[in-house]
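REVIEWER CHECKLIST
Item 1: Sequence provided? yes
Item 2: Single chain? yes
Item 3: Sequence as submitted:
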Amino acid sequence: MLVPSNMATSMERLRVLRGLIRELRHVHKKGPVKETIAYNYLMEQYRKHQVTDQRICRAHQELQRNAETYLCLLKSTRLQQALHAEYYGKGEKTTEETAKMLGFDLPQNPPDK
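Item 4: Structure as written out by the authors:
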């Protein structure tokens, strides 16, 4: 099925907008996201630069690229923080802890005779 190019771009814009809102929810865990300044600014910019039949936004591609870049930044920052929290050195680990973290089992020592 062929999708008209203007419909494809608006679906892409919607996908990026939903991704940005999802990432804002991760950042602002307390209270509804709709009450944040970032959400209000984001929605204002999307509405302001909306492409319609009567008006064409000249910088549409630039704004779309900026939104995609910002979404990538938010996702990458969240994932980096999760990795940092999981693997950051909280002191030296024992050999057994390191082996379990890597998915290995240490051989058992034979009992002394």
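Item 5: Key structural point noted by reviewer: Residues 60-87 form the longest helix (28 residues).
Item 6: Recommendation: ____
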